Fold this protein.
Amino acid sequence: MLMQKAGWDAAVISGTDPHGSEYLPERWQQRKWISGFTGSYGTVVITRDHAGLWTDTRYFIQSRKELEGTEFELHPLRVPKAVDYPEWLATNLTTGAIVGIDGECVTYRDAERLRKALKGLDATLDSRASFLNAIWNDRPGLPLNPVFILEEKYSGKAAREKLEHLRQQIKEEGCSHIVLNSLDQIAWLFNLRGHDIPFNPVAVSYALIDEKNATFFITPGKVSENVIQILREQGISVMPYDSFPVVLQSLPPQTRIMADGNTLNYSTFQALIANCTVQDVQSPVILDKAIKNSVETNGFRKAYLNDGIALERFFFWLVRSLEKDIVLTETDAAKKLSWMRTLAEGAMGDSFQYISAYGPNASLPHYAPNPKTALSLLKKGLYLIDSGGHYLYGTTDITRTVPLGPLTQAERQDYTLALKGMIALSRAVFLKGTKGTHLDMLVRDPLWRHRINYGHGTGHGTGHFLCVHEGPQDIRMTWRDQDLLPGMITSNEPGIYREGSHGVRHENVLLCNLLEENEFGIWLGFETLTLCHIDTSPLLISLMEPSEVEWLNAYNRSVYTKLAPFLTYDESVWLEKKTAPVVM
Amino acid sequence: MLMQKAGWDAAVISGTDPHGSEYLPERWQQRKWISGFTGSYGTVVITRDHAGLWTDTRYFIQSRKELEGTEFELHPLRVPKAVDYPEWLATNLTTGAIVGIDGECVTYRDAERLRKALKGLDATLDSRASFLNAIWNDRPGLPLNPVFILEEKYSGKAAREKLEHLRQQIKEEGCSHIVLNSLDQIAWLFNLRGHDIPFNPVAVSYALIDEKNATFFITPGKVSENVIQILREQGISVMPYDSFPVVLQSLPPQTRIMADGNTLNYSTFQALIANCTVQDVQSPVILDKAIKNSVETNGFRKAYLNDGIALERFFFWLVRSLEKDIVLTETDAAKKLSWMRTLAEGAMGDSFQYISAYGPNASLPHYAPNPKTALSLLKKGLYLIDSGGHYLYGTTDITRTVPLGPLTQAERQDYTLALKGMIALSRAVFLKGTKGTHLDMLVRDPLWRHRINYGHGTGHGTGHFLCVHEGPQDIRMTWRDQDLLPGMITSNEPGIYREGSHGVRHENVLLCNLLEENEFGIWLGFETLTLCHIDTSPLLISLMEPSEVEWLNAYNRSVYTKLAPFLTYDESVWLEKKTAPVVM
């Protein structure tokens, strides 16, 4: 009806907000509202006779479940011969078609990709902000939570210093301004944090930086006088969120401004192009943010120590509870772990929606238990928990798969092979210039030799008390021309998923360090930050090489040594047993 | 003087011929003639006050030796902060500069790259064919060797069939014609071979194919009446080499023609652009040629069997000769192996300039012994021989590094680590869609863990009784978006080079095969074609994993089983000892 009124042949509802966020404030959860799909990646397309959801391998099983009984059809991505929605529209619309998009909630890059795909049809993109308002009666408003300063003892670098460096980079690009819309970039740059988005400690805002000024656009009332004062000392002024478009329009004509078409929304980007000379390049803040300073890396080490304490206490509690035949659901277990984390100094809540998955549920790589349907844990099979915490000094992300009792041979094999993959990356040594794509192969090789693969990437960057997923580096098959650099923090999480049966994933987080320079080049390696024992009882030792067992024993030994002093006597006795070396 | 007369500020002398060949007929060995550098890759640039040679890591040591005492300066490529000659010229010439190039002896792609780099200078490219003729008085003429037909029992497919498939591909590209200048593409397509280029059984020629006709441009007198008759039966007509430019000029205006700017020379490409609509795409013949048919792969198996017999006889002879204190130089040894190869049915000579390198000479990855300065082999240290043969049914390429007596610990370590790399690739299993770049990492990992690297690629494609190096696939760090596909034949040759001390390289050649399809995708793997024992005496077993030793023992066992029936009693007794399993 909405589409008829607007005269549209298709409407595209992307999965993002004006800030290109991964997790969204309720206001912008349009895709979930219209389709019921709760995954973090996907695009909804509605035509006159079709409703489709495009999503990737991670969400095939989940989306099929969630879309059951609706008229939405799943269009799989990242599989051979996948057809993405722009190409699908190009073959399913007729010449002269009009396609409606919410220009605020789609990136410039995605809109351009759509425009290009539809070029042959002479189609029109009709971009209207918030077009769902007309039918979404109880749509939530903008979030109104206060922001707070992240002290320099945590951030390691004053906002003023970060701004100075950014201004150099703007100059090198031949520009005078940069516009930022990514919430984690703004939070990092200004040393600010917020509560606007579940799991991401950021505030809905924009930023505009030029040679002299830095402006923070945020809804009034969210910034206290005290914060305004501290920002002013760092050379940052505050203006209302709503005034952002007006300020952009009043920029002097021919201003040379940097904007990142990969994250900036289409409406803002178009407004800039109309007025300014836009340099469409990756925001330099992305790389600066990814390379952690020594205060941040020390903070991460502390975060993983506290995380490890919480995890070992949780697993001890879990084992004892099952021994006592206490009935626990996936939700009960995950909530207990979240609570364990809150006991640490500076704990700031979960860093993402936990995955707590027993038995066949673990075959959904991104399963989240529904309290009503959550399975109870039985004393057999594998239980997978992927969770993380925020601390003022760092953000954690860890997955452990643990046996709750007897295992099948298939479970033991998959457990062992996925672990071999994780070990391979943990101990990799590599030349400067190496990309994540190069290293990805090391992780897959032990699985591939058994003709098993997993349909997701191996690793993602992690923010410092910021988003648990961040770029620019990653570790996956798809080529990305980004070196892995000292100071980067990246996850290492191979898995094996058997629909209807079980799932395994082992995840540690790695800090990239400089090792040495020699005649062959500059050598880098990883320090494993994660501290939590890896259960050795499910292993099929015959599948392991001696050097892998050696790595595993050393890892478990270091977990025990570092965590035992913080555990109760019973806990530490238990952990000592769990970390006893494997003998080949 | 030549440059002054032409009014040039710089002259670029590329390392190729009008056909983009790797090995060149004497006529086109301009780079060697002017600089003395004999490597297979490099560009000479001469300005009014500088003479430079640009080449890559493979040739650093060699080129420094060969350029010693000349005014040529080495500009290293494929190292951090390398500046290639177009960029070097851009910063070392002044506005309005004129740069002379031989338009016949530079590819269109390279000329365009140079033109782009010099754009800021408003420089002019002055392209003149064979400008060195003015000063190169004894320049050799065009080669005049006869061509011959490769029978279908060897090629596995009639030229007529290959042409039909090519015409489909031309049509799919929206074109009516394709022009070919790569000699191996023409030879493969027409099932022809020649003797014009050392080590490459090809004939200097061009080809033009349209919907109905296929024309082979070659110097008259090189094609017998008999060959002309056979070609005619396949729908191929013959015209003089010199008439090629005239025929191109007489194409109907607006002919849509496919041409590959990566291999086609600048002069020809420019002539096409002036007249036709050129589709600048990779020639489809490259991929067709790389995917061997079953007749070709069986031919390769036979070639490697005969090659293995020659190699084992050679190594047996070498050992016995050294025992008898016979003095042998690097050249003597290599010549003996070449001779051993000629004893096989259908042997057609060496497939490339052998590398026969003793001790420190082996640290030059592309060392070729000079008969006058060749070292004598002593009863200690490592000896590396990289050689190959052509047979009517296939082309071989193999490197073995063997101990001639006591070894240092460093030699043993490097021998072992390079072998671990080779084994990793040999037994890789991978999903369809995997590129060479992905697999490269598996080979480097065992070396990198010891902070050792090699400055060349890991693998190259190999032609079927054609060029020993061919595309489109390769195995190296640099990203190339080309899947490894069943039927491709690729080398596997990691090495370790210690300047002034020793060098190690182990090279086997691998056939890519389909393994199976399962829920995760289509799985591929390698069959090792090379049959020649790998000496186990230098191994540091403590550096090896059990599964690596298992692979090695199985490989050596299969070498013995397959070759022993063709050896003398003494040879087979010796080989049995050399292939005895290693016990961990």
Q: What stands out?
A: The two ends of chain B are 68 Å apart (CA to CA). Chain B has a mean pLDDT of 95. The longest helix of chain B spans residues 294-323.
